[in-house]
Amino acid sequence: MKVIVIGGVAGGPSFATRLRRLNEQAEILLIERGDYISYASCALPYYLGDVITDLDSLVERTPEVFKSKNNIDVLVRHEVTAIDPATKSVTVKNLTTGEVFQEKYDKLVLSTGTRALLPPIKGIETVANGRVLRNVTDAARIKSFIATQRPKKATVIGAGPAGLELAENLHALGMTVTVVDQLTQVAFPYDPELAAIVEAHLTEKGLKLLLGKTVVEIQDAGQTLRLNDGTVLPTDLLIFATGVRPNSELAATAGLKLATNRRIIVDEKLATSAPDIYAIGDVIETKSYITGLAVPSLLASAANRQGHLLADIINGADWTYHGYIGTGIAKIFDLTVSFVGYTEHMLKAAGITNYKTILITPFDHSYFYPDAKRLNLKLIFEVETGKILGAQAVGERGVDKRIGELSTAITGRLTVFDLPNLELPYSPPYSTTRDPINTAGYVAINQLKRTALTIKVSDIPTTDFATAFFLDIREADRPTMGTVKATKNIPLSELRERLAEIPMERKVYITFRKGLNPYNAARILAGNGIEAVLIEE
Amino acid sequence: MKVIVIGGVAGGPSFATRLRRLNEQAEILLIERGDYISYASCALPYYLGDVITDLDSLVERTPEVFKSKNNIDVLVRHEVTAIDPATKSVTVKNLTTGEVFQEKYDKLVLSTGTRALLPPIKGIETVANGRVLRNVTDAARIKSFIATQRPKKATVIGAGPAGLELAENLHALGMTVTVVDQLTQVAFPYDPELAAIVEAHLTEKGLKLLLGKTVVEIQDAGQTLRLNDGTVLPTDLLIFATGVRPNSELAATAGLKLATNRRIIVDEKLATSAPDIYAIGDVIETKSYITGLAVPSLLASAANRQGHLLADIINGADWTYHGYIGTGIAKIFDLTVSFVGYTEHMLKAAGITNYKTILITPFDHSYFYPDAKRLNLKLIFEVETGKILGAQAVGERGVDKRIGELSTAITGRLTVFDLPNLELPYSPPYSTTRDPINTAGYVAINQLKRTALTIKVSDIPTTDFATAFFLDIREADRPTMGTVKATKNIPLSELRERLAEIPMERKVYITFRKGLNPYNAARILAGNGIEAVLIEE
């Protein structure tokens, strides 16, 4: 059996090494267009920021080691320019010599990943002071640029998690960093209420954020940016973190079926529409484990696991890929942000509407043990069934743990009704007797059983005006709103500390305010066992 | 409905407050023998060690707050001396005044917990310099003893996790701490190979461990201990952490059905054998969620959840307790030790033998990102089905997360075959592209599929003596053992760094050595994709 693998970053090497462990006889050839294989692309920002100083440490195995230790042939700086499914052969071009040759395969694995998606900005092709950080070669080049040019002002275009990791690392080098994004929030696809926490933290750390703005023209070889609001932004270093596009042109030309997002469609055996051609990693569209809907595969760790699984499948195991969940995490200064499954942004894009959400802010561990920090945990679940659709968390401690546990819960097909039963490790330095996940379950169940979270003024029972507690959550300096007279004002910012002022025995309404604040107030109250009703006006 | 709750530490208050939230009309009376209710007993060692300085912060709610905020009547320093299921009444004694009175109930909840189990050592009743740390009163008393007597030498009897937490906190105060245990390992019920790691750490931190030894006599009001090996141990402070026994005498006298371990037997509604009497927390015997066998409930967090659930059940919800998993965690100096489900010690006690184990030592996060530490992760699973029976982990980072994830996996009825599929949050500061849990799954699957892990010399195929690689893992200064000539010596301590010297293409045997070392070597190799066979002699 001769197996050719195209693409050597994450899924490809994982596949090839696993196949070798399973099968000593297979002939395995790995072809990579770039200079390096098997490296940790997620770690590149930390190399820029001097958190990781040895670039070689990011390369797990060299082509030489692949040959000597795993008996896998590797061609770097070689590009596959065509696939012929009929003759089961590929055309390979040596990018150094220009030589072109054919290779036959019995099985072909596409692990071609993605490349940077650059916005069509006037002058972008002239940028000489940075551009993108996608691979080891980019990292070495930018590092060298920083060492020799000593940029003082850096600009990152794109405030997604990847852009923010970059921004933090440039900031760590002492640069003044500006982040520009066309969206009005950072950290997309996280939802706005969590992004707002990240945004406040970034500002506090000294990053300049220009949100809801686009670069319309690049001048001076990247040193001057003109924004859509007229701002002229000078910069010494310019990096785009504006998303990716799949490297699927080769597959398209060979006639493989692509999704509308240009990703290669695979079945549960990770097989493409062409016989004996498989695909793994960021270039594929697969099925969501949660909803069964088509979703792109977007994570190096997923690529790794798909590679491992595919080796078993090609070697004859009757296993199937169970679908993609999607779990992301990023360290952003002192915060950890992490999500699993769908965010509300993603649900909206998928047209899913029958869900509810909760947001709780418990301590990550016992408040009386040192360094307890508030965790912001949002859970999204299906109405009626309580099926967990997704979760997001932001905080200084215990974020990765909770999202890991919720991802495991999703894999186990648990619902919010199961979350109170989870027996998570408790001792004061690690958790609370009721872990945040247990609390999230309790609050979600309350939310599902509640008939009305919001009420119109006209629907409030008349007797309630005499007996209920009407809470006004505006900050001291803000104007009152709405028509219902409040019993008491407790600013949202003080609510958690002043919970004792809310009578447990009375029905609680929150008087009208615009925006998310009443919702957040209700969530804080719900997290503390108080089920408040929001007044809509 | 009048509901009486006996016992006010963990499960009782959780039950009472939840019932009040569900039901404004119920009359709720909580009776506690001690001075305090609703406190964090797990935090008491940290109060001794000055990690937590405010004892009041450990008391979540006072009786006054219970009354004013939750409308729950509380009697502290009152003991229930008898239950009469026929008349549905209890006899209560005011421990301050001696007054005795009756209270009627519609529903009775026993949350009486456990008390310290003191070994029958001659002179133990004379101890005046410590004794046990079970409640807030004990903590205040020992703290005061330390402040006034300034003990220099402390002895903790019992090297279980609770004893070790105590020892660490006394050590933090500058005392010379000795820990004595009759077992030959620390941290029971953790298995020996993990306990050995903890033991080495404790010794490194300067604790003196006397294992496999018992105290046979206590003299000088606790200041002199005579051990079974003749050692005379002087000590200024003496604390017993020698386990607990259930406070079930009251239940026994009332005719409630007890298990042989003296715990109260409850059904899936948390009901005892007597009508309208329920029990929760450490005093009950319940069913294992994992095996269905009877197990004691041993955790404050489980008590808390049982209390919450029982309130729903008594209020009419048709819910059931899904069984006890058992998840423990302790911080021991720089290490975190945590387990979920069964350890091998527990499996042996339960008579379960059809299981396999793996022990892996991966990095908790990417080795190239700062502060990566080795995690020691043991997984125990059923032969054939791969059902997860338990897990244990020891390390400096990421221990709580992995055990929390595995506990969630157990709740979701996942098997080791599912573990490679878990999508756990990956970014270099938090994990590796293949998380330790994924790796544990891969290794466990390999283990299940392996026909023989060990082989007798006589069963080794003759041809293998010419072609296989026989690895000798003794340290440089140790004698050779066994009859099979080794191909190469790589000391176990260097094995991980010298893996490249083991030829992937040859069958690997590990030559005979006594004890756990060959097993550990095989686990290291398995974690790196090398399936070695142990030679038995």
TrEMBL record, chains A, B:
Keyword Transit peptide: no
Cross-referenced PROSITE patterns: RHODANESE_3
Keywords of the record: FAD, Flavoprotein, Oxidation, Oxidoreductase, Redox-active center
GO molecular function: oxidoreductase activity
Keyword Flavoprotein listed: yes
InterPro entries: FAD-bd_OxRdtase, FAD/NAD-bd_sf, FAD/NAD-binding_dom, FAD/NAD-linked_Rdtase_dimer_sf, Pyr_nucl-diS_OxRdtase_dimer, Rhodanese-like_dom, Rhodanese-like_dom_sf
UniProt superkingdom: Bacteria
Cofactor needs: FAD
PANTHER family: NAD(P)H SULFUR OXIDOREDUCTASE (COA-DEPENDENT), PYRIDINE NUCLEOTIDE-DISULFIDE OXIDOREDUCTASE DOMAIN-CONTAINING
Similarity remark: Belongs to the class-III pyridine nucleotide-disulfide oxidoreductase family.
The protein's name in its UniProt record: Pyridine nucleotide-disulfide oxidoreductase
